[in-house]
Amino acid sequence: xxxxxxxxxxxxxxxxxxxxxxxxxxxxxxxxxxxxxxxxxxxxxxxxxxxxxxxxxxxxxxxxxxxxxxxxxxxxxxxxxxxxxxxxxxxxxxxxxxxxxxxxxxxxxxxxxxxxxxxxxxxxxxxxxxxxxxxxxxxxxxxxxxxxxxxxxxxxxxxxxxxxxxxxxxxxxxxxxxxxxxxxxxxxxxxxxxxxxxxxxxxxxxxxxxxxxxxxxxxxxxxxxxxxxxxxxxxxxxxxxxxxxxxxxxxxxxxxxxxxxxxxxxxxxxxxxxxxxxxxx
Length: 281
Known about the structure:
Structural class: alpha/beta
Number of helices: 9
Helix content: 25-40%
Number of strands: 14
Low-confidence stretches: 267-272, 274-281
């Protein structure tokens, strides 16, 4: 009987897998760090293939240490470092460039050019974010503008984009053999490309950034079955049923389910959680 849930935490410095029992108690874990790559001052990269290999290994470690198999797992959930952009070839499964990490600042000139006379607030009323190097959209543009042949492949529909949640999910569900190209709203909201009112991609903003719509994953809710583990994978047939960006996952984990009441003269602002969410790992 499948009595356990597997959580994959693809973080900034490491990937972890944690098995929980029905009571929410930790049964077993696996964790591996990946390389931090600094090609130049202000540039931060990760190797997406190393991340994927580490995810596979930590899942195996967690299952082995818990004396479990995939048949014991009811579902898999993914949480991840947000804004870290991966672009890969849908036909080969290979990244066209290293993942550009959320801390990276190489896109400052792109951000300034996009803002023009309107500045950092240009898209904020739509996407809820100021123009900044932090977010995924300008990172995609940099890859398409600077990696030889990338823009041509993208315009032919051969390239896919995702934050690391999408990269892990696509590989887990089949990769080049039918991998599911999906993200959730919490990750999509950190790209600067999603309309907060409609929860859909804005074609006009993507066009401003020179990003073909065919690159973008389908936006889905944070809790539903997106697909199942591929048959030759570590959790064959197991539903992948949750995605939540790391900050939102930490907030949810601290039981912050309601918006804080505004501060008044007689009472301080309150929220439904008492412990602050932790930053990325």
